[in-house]
Amino acid sequence: MSPKQMSLLQGTLDVLVLQALAGAPRHGYGVAEWIRRTTDGALEIEDGALYTSLHRMERRGWLESSWGTSENNRRAKYYALTPKGERHLSDATQDWARYAEAVFKVLATRPPRRDGGRA
């Protein structure tokens, strides 16, 4: 894979954000930074996509938010998983593990040659 920023598959962002919040509440920048650091810079989340995801998951009841003070002494909105969000993360993690396993099986299998093996 190239060192350039990889695109996120549709539906991936929510599960990444939920995982970033599984350990402790974070503000939006903290979520994006955790994902960037955890993936060694391979995934960088655009602000617009991140905040759309956070607001969508808050509406679904997967997250709750509260105002606090950031490490830079600025007012920031912190997001935390709800019990419903924890259940969704668990289900989504299992779904992604099955999906990734299936994709790796395909990638590890050499398909038969169309020409019957002739060079």
Summarize this entry quickly.
This protein is an alpha+beta fold. The protein contains 4 helices and 3 strands, in the order αβααββα.
Could you please describe the fold and organization of this structure?
There is one protein chain. By secondary structure, the protein is α+β, with helices and mostly antiparallel strands. It has a single domain, classed as Arc Repressor Mutant, subunit A (Orthogonal Bundle). It has four helices and three strands; from the N terminus they run H-E-H-H-E-E-H. The radius of gyration is 18 Å and the shape is elongated.
CATH architecture grouping: Orthogonal Bundle
Looking at the structure, what is the overall shape?
A: elongated
User: Roughly what is the average pLDDT, rounded to an integer?
Assistant: 89
In terms of quaternary structure, the protein is single chain
Beta-strand percentage? 5-15%
Q: Distance N terminus to C terminus? A: 29 Å
Q: Helicity level, as a percent range?
A: 40-55%
